[in-house]
Amino acid sequence: MLTMGIPQKLLDALTSTSDTSSSAYALPIDWPSMGRALVWQSIIDGTASAINLQLLGAMNDVSAEYSIIDTSTVAAGEMRHVSPINVRFIKVRQVSRTSGTSLTVNVLI
């Protein structure tokens, strides 16, 4: 479970450039009803020429229920603020990446 105020690495130094998803992380029990924000950040070591990341969310940790909350295509990496987040579980999917040594994705609620 994610804890407010403590950054969590959803992907940590991922070297694969293929389609890869992080584990699912639960948000605090009252999170969906409060519709709070979260911040997520992509950090790419090396020089990537292209990247496609998706922040996914679901009310239940069931693959078929996940939908795209936000996307990132900035090859240099970026920090994004998303609000409101009305889900109970989140995960990050690297759809593709061209070059770059590794990828780390952090989230802060």
List keywords for this structure.
109 residues, mainly beta, Jelly Rolls, five-stranded antiparallel beta sheet, four-stranded antiparallel beta sheet, 9 strands
Spell out the blueprint of helices and strands.
Blueprint: E1 8-14, E2 20-21, E3 25-26, H1 31-34, E4 38-45, E5 48-58, E6 67-72, E7 78-82, E8 89-99, E9 102-108
Antiparallel strand pairs: 1-9, 2-8, 3-8, 4-7, 4-9, 5-6, 5-8
From N to C, what is the helix and strand string?
EEEHEEEEEE
CATH class: Mainly Beta
Q: Number of domains in the coordinates?
A: 1
Estimated helix fraction: under 10%
Structural class: mainly beta
| Biggest sheet overview | 5 strands, antiparallel
The CATH topology assignment is Jelly Rolls
CATH A-level architecture: Sandwich
Q: What oligomeric arrangement do these chains adopt? A: single chain
Mean pLDDT: 93
Beta content comes to: over 45%
Distance between the termini: 11 Å
Q: Using DSSP, what is the number of strands?
A: 9
Unreliable stretches:
none
Count of separate DSSP helical elements: 1
- Rounded to an integer, what's the Rg over CA atoms? 13 Å
Give the overall form.
globular
Task: Give an overview of the whole structure.
With about 110 residues, this protein is mainly beta. It has one domain: Jelly Rolls, CATH 2.60.120.380. Helix content is about 5%, strand content about 55%. The protein has one helix and nine strands, in the order E-E-E-H-E-E-E-E-E-E. It has one helix spanning about 30-35, and strands at about 10-15, 20, 25, 40-45, 50-60, 65-70, 80, 90-100, 100-109. The strands form two sheets. Strands 2, 3, 5, 6 and 8 form a five-stranded antiparallel β-sheet that branches. It has a four-stranded antiparallel β-sheet with strand order 1-9-4-7, with no helix packed on it. The protein is globular. The model has no long low-confidence stretch (mean pLDDT about 95).
